[in-house]
Amino acid sequence: MFRKIFLPCAAGLFAVLGASAANAEDGGLNDMQIAHIAYVAGQIDIQYAEIAMKRSHNADVRAFAETMLRDHKSVNDAALALLEKLGATPEDNPTSKSLLASAAAKRAELKALKGAAFDRAYAANELSYHQFVNKTVEGTFIPAAQNAEFKDLLGVALATFKVHESHAEKLVKKLGK
Amino acid sequence: MVAATSQRANVMRSALWAGLIALIAGGVLSLATSASAETHVVEMRGFEFFPAEVNAAIGDTIVWINKDVVPHTATAADGAWDSGLMETDDEFSLTIEADTSTGDYVCTFHPNMVGVISLD
Questions:
Q1: B117: how many CB neighbours lie within 10 A of its CB?
Q2: Distances (CA, A) of B82 to A114, B53, B85
Q3: Which of A56, A67, A91, B14 is the S-S candidate for A61 at Cβ 3.0 to 4.6 Å?
């Protein structure tokens, strides 16, 4: 049941980010499009965390969600500050739109769950989400980024998201199947 | 009468000298302590404490500075002291006293971040 629910979602996200990776490698994504995708990816995880804060009573899940709220807001604020400094504006693009559509479906799934089932589903989604985002940021966005400061910020974001991935992995194990 | 007054004056003079000597001695001791006290700086950087271990003596001060873009804490593992939320570039100071809890400390937001205070 668990796999049936989440594998399609993970596959959907992978397809979205896989398409963006192909675009970036083909020179199809510029820095401002990558910035938009990265910002949207952070906002999506903030929205997942907000659901967790409303639905979960598990102390570990709530602590993790609070960390996601704090950290993704901080990283996105840093991104906005850099863009302002550079006088640049993030560009909306099909990958961002696809990410948002996939996330809306995932939020609906999460909202249909409660109790331990919700906690396990939220933790599993956080793990798969961070795994795929990290793979894309590390393997595609950072190599494709042109502006040095933006590339550095993507590196900082990646370090943050890798810590989240490790944290999510421990949470998944603690919550069990 | 005169002898008694003189004796009282001597006692008072002795007490004053003793007090003065005690004050000077205390001041010198205090200066010696503060002169030998060290400040140890620990940076929170890349989701780690740098350095991860601090060897401190009683009277030393440890200063944590958050150099990451996300908030951290420096919190005693036993909860005896806590920096609270530290935003980027925030600082937190802890002076080590005889009863200060030492040993392991963590960032409560990021459990992988662990540091140690060892007493010299």
A1: 22
A2: 34, 17, 9
A3: A56
Q: Is A28 helix (H, G, I), strand (E, B) or coil?
A: coil
CB-nearest partner of A71 from B46, B70, B111: B70
Cβ-defined contact of B47 to A167 (cutoff 8 Å): no
Chain-centroid distance, C-alpha A90: 17
Task: Report the C-alpha gap between B70 and B54 in whole angstroms.
Answer: 23
Q: Alpha-carbon distance A34 to A28, whole Å?
A: 10
Q: Say what the ipTM of the complex is.
A: 0.81
Contact call for residues A136 and A20 (beta carbons, < 8 A): yes
Which chain A residues contact residue B46 at CB under 8 A?
159
Over its length of 120 residues, how does chain B's per-residue pLDDT go in tens digits? 444 445 555 655 665 565 555 544 444 444 444 558 999 999 999 999 999 999 999 999 999 999 999 999 999 999 999 999 999 999 999 999 999 999 999 999 998 999 999 998
Q: Where are the domains of chain B?
A: 1-36, 39-119
DSSP states of B8-66 as a string?
A: HHHHHHHHHHHHHHHHHHHHHHHHHHHHH--EEEEEEETTEEESSEEEE-TT-EEEEEE
For chain A, the domains span 2-175
Q: Please give, rounded to a whole number of angstroms, the shortest distance from the CA of A70 to a CA of chain B.
A: 7
What value does the mean pLDDT of chain A take?
88
For position B120, what pLDDT does the model report?
A: 85
Residues with Cβ < 8 Å from A89, sequence gap 6 or more?
A32, A83
CATH class of A2-175: mainly alpha
Evaluate the omega torsion of the peptide bond into residue B51 and state whether it is cis, within 30 degrees of 0: yes
In the CATH hierarchy, which top-level class contains the domain B39-119? Answer: mainly beta
Give me the residue label for tokens 């440890």: B62
